[in-house]
Amino acid sequence: MSLDYENDGAFHAKLIEEVLSQYPDKAAKRRKKHLSVAKSGDEAGEEGEVVSECDVKSNIKSIPGVMTIRGCAYAGSKGVVWGPIKDMVHISHGPVGCGQYSWSQRRNYYVGTTGIDTFGTMQFTSDFQEKDIVFGGDKKLEQIIDEIEGLFPLNNGMSVQSECPIGLIGDDTEAVSRNKAKEHGKTIVPVRCEGFRGVSQSLGHHIANDAIRDWVFEKKNVEFEAGPYDVNVIGDYNIGGDAWASRILLEEIGLRVVGNWSGDATLAEIERAPKAKLNLIHCYRSMNYICRHMEEKYGVAWMEYNFFGPSQIEASLRKIAKHFGPEIEEKTEKVIGKYRPLIDAVIAKYRPRLEGNTVMLYVGGLRPRHVITAYEDLGMVIVGTGYEFAHNDDYQRTGHYVRNGTLIYDDVTGYELEKFIEGVRPNLVGSGIKEKYPVQKMGIPFRQMHSWDYSGPYHGYDGFAIFARDVDLAINNPVWGLYDAPWKKSPRRGRAMAAE
Amino acid sequence: MPQSAEKILDHAPLFREPEYRQMLAEKKLNFECPHPDQIVTDQREFTKTWEYREKNLAREALVVNPAKACQPLGAVFAAAGFERTMSFVHGSQGCVAYYRSHLSRHFKEPASAVSSSMTEDAAVFGGLKNMVDGLANTYQLYDPKMIAVSTTCMAEVIGDDLHSFIENAKDENSVPRDFDVPFAHTPAFVGSHVDGYDGMVKGILEHFWKGQERREAAGTINIIPGFDGFCVGNNRELKRLLDLMSVSYTFIQDASDQFDTPSDGEYRMYDGGTKIEDVKKALNAEATLSLQYYNTRKTLEYCEQSGQETASFHYPLGVQATDEFLMKVSALSGKEIPETIRLERGRLVDAMADSQSWLHGKKYAIYGDPDFVYAMARFVMETGGEPTHCLATNGASAWEAEMKELLASSPFGKDAQVWAGKDLWAMRSLLFTEPVDLLIGNSYGKYLERDTGTPLIRLMFPIFDRHHHHRFALMGYQGGLRVLTTILDKIFDKLDRETSETGVTDYSYDLTR
């Protein structure tokens, strides 16, 4: 289902110009490269073709003092890649804050007895003190690993997630990890994800991927009977149960999901991954590295897919099935057919309530493109989108999704986002917790697109129904009509400039 | 197929459906390589024992589920309590994303702060350039009246000097020479968020007071509230009391409006806060009162050095703590405590008397920031309750000594234990081995509630999973009523749950309690 629309590129270009005029010259020059309006590509419309071009610079340093929304490498490693591996203890190594603020906030669902055989919603920290900075923290780390072994003996491994000071004071977490791993007969993985490394969460993902390659793969003799339909799901963090709502479909079409990276994962699922036949990658940005490695080293093919919204789910299921041949393809068509009545009913219920509503997105490294079609399946229109930490290849892929004239913003600043939203006044903004309340104060409905606003799952057919419900309840809640006191005669809020 | 358009199931019910339960059971069996159930059960039971508790409490290096945050969070909160002030945190940028998220999740409000976005090159060469460019950008984009600079641990480890950096930035015209840029070094590896609060408030006072001549204005007082997730409710309630007394006062640091802006179509990046002019004038006050001693130790010292009388409290909550606060204010200001306040006091006492039978002898575990734990333990004892476990991860020996003195002052404190520096995994062992009726803390306590079955009452920052509690006061007599009602609701709800089984326990399902 593809909606045919174009956005008001000239208006968006003017907004960009206005925003840039407020910066000091040096900053304006740098920010200019991150903002653009999507232009028509060669052949718009055909599947797989580039619909438009999003020509922005990305994955470069944020400007100081502008209120970037980005996080750090630690957030990318501990928060995203490693944190969800449930049967390992992840030590936030350094001062107390990083682990505290990220504690239980990503909603990677898992099943297990927390504190006994799983450790996902816990905060293990070395709580660095001044003396640890002065004298080094290696001895303390050794003791911490021993104490974890004593108190949490059913852990199946540990990771040491380095915070900023570790790399600055010259600690050797690799040596400590190596020695302690030998002593306890456990996997212990040092991850050099100090927050000052790189320019965003993104390098943390890469470092975390590399740590799996260097400290997990080929370290144990993995006994596993591989089958012909074995796949890994890579880059699904099971936020609100996303990976479960995806797994159920993959199993229904006849595949065997032997590892899920890394939502609800155990270390065993990571270790056996190279034995699978195909890596299915959802969050390309955070885990493409390890897929490329598995392809080179073990010959495991990889394929991107998108389980947001029925159009993409159908296309993805068919693409995946094609890889496995007629038997799976046949089952896939049955599965698509089985869910079609549900999807038809969901769309019949919600599309009339949402048709034509405009949406602005600002998320991390995948969703700013991946969720677009899900909104369009509901008849909604994407007027602007941008990433915190995308690279050039993400913006290339974004071209497949966005329409001509769409406002594109990379590493947007608080100021820009506020001005863009004020100018465009979309019917819905999808972004993060830091953006939620400013947007709602303006009277614009909002959904958190990192945590699913405490709802979810949004992946798969079951997830799409929830997504549709949530978008509807956000936009059509009566509270937005109560903002103006009836006795106060003030001009209605409207677009800063006439648009569309 | 469990999902339908008529009744859409989200995560909580969806994954209880048979299809998903079976899928997850098979995932576990075939792919997770779990420990055998018996071993898991044995270990779980073992964690409930005294033997495990001893091992757990003997930990020297590992910290699990601490109840504290790091200094710069306190500094960012502090800066939010001053007029049009933007927090500028010098160091890695991810930290600032975390502080903003953390504050927003508690207050359900915007939380603004900027970072100097230092990366690897700045780690080598220092972050001066980041400061120079960053201040210029912040000044121009966000139109602040003041920029309050604090530090992440990265900047502290490499030793960046804020004072000279800010001077340099002014030399390079990042901000006008006379623009206010107070600062505080806030190393995350020293103390906790309460110390970061202290440092930033002191930094701001020093910035405005240093070298100024003090002309004492008799009878005027400054109030410093401390790091308080309930500042919205508390500050407004205290102002109401002080207004009733006609006291001349200044709140130094007041985030009550900043973290409670209305929804009327306008996003206010800045709202309320102590006016810069008032901060300057506050030097002349006769006295400065701190509502939370452990949040303001250095600040109070500085006020004293500036010639002011000082006094401090431990989060004035409950009857006697509020009495003491008001009497101190009265003594300093020379203003009487009016009859209306005495009546309010009487109403709180009346409520406590009405409910005393439900509260007498109840055992509590209390954790949180040092001043809060002190306050709650004191109020609990006023209701005839017993504060069995008092724990502050960021409490040290001075706090422990003060707590012990407090507990010794009442027969209800005789069995109480004080746990300075311990974390919530330690609390888990305490609750299993020496159980209590109620747990008072913040949202992180929900894991303790799940594991030990102890009902959790959320009265302390951060509260992520309940809404709007922070909009109501805990301090003062009115606040006391709120705390009292919250505790009672928890007790009655639990009793109703336990007595609601038809034909089994519901003989005790009383209509009137």
Automatic annotation (TrEMBL), chain A:
InterPro entries: Nase/OxRdtase_comp1 (IPR000510), Nase_comp1_asu (IPR010143), Nase_comp1_CS (IPR000318), Nase_Mo-Fe_asu (IPR005972). Residues 72-473 form the Nitrogenase/oxidoreductase component domain. CDD domains: Nitrogenase_MoFe_alpha. It catalyses: N2 + 8 reduced [2Fe-2S]-[ferredoxin] + 16 ATP + 16 H2O = H2 + 8 oxidized [2Fe-2S]-[ferredoxin] + 2 NH4(+) + 16 ADP + 16 phosphate + 6 H(+). Pfam families: Oxidored_nitro. GO terms for molecular function: ATP binding; iron-sulfur cluster binding; metal ion binding; nitrogenase activity. Its cofactor is [7Fe-Mo-9S-C-homocitryl] cluster; [8Fe-7S] cluster. Keywords: ATP-binding, Iron, Iron-sulfur, Metal-binding, Molybdenum, Nitrogen fixation, Nucleotide-binding, Oxidoreductase. One of its GO terms (cellular component) is molybdenum-iron nitrogenase complex. It is an enzyme of class 1 (oxidoreductase). Its EC number is 1.18.6.1. Gene3D superfamilies: Nitrogenase molybdenum iron protein domain (3.40.50.1980). Belongs to the NifD/NifK/NifE/NifN family. Tetramer of two alpha and two beta chains. Forms complex with the iron protein (nitrogenase component 2). This molybdenum-iron protein is part of the nitrogenase complex that catalyzes the key enzymatic reactions in nitrogen fixation. This is Nitrogenase protein alpha chain. It comes from Mesorhizobium caraganae. The gene is nifD.
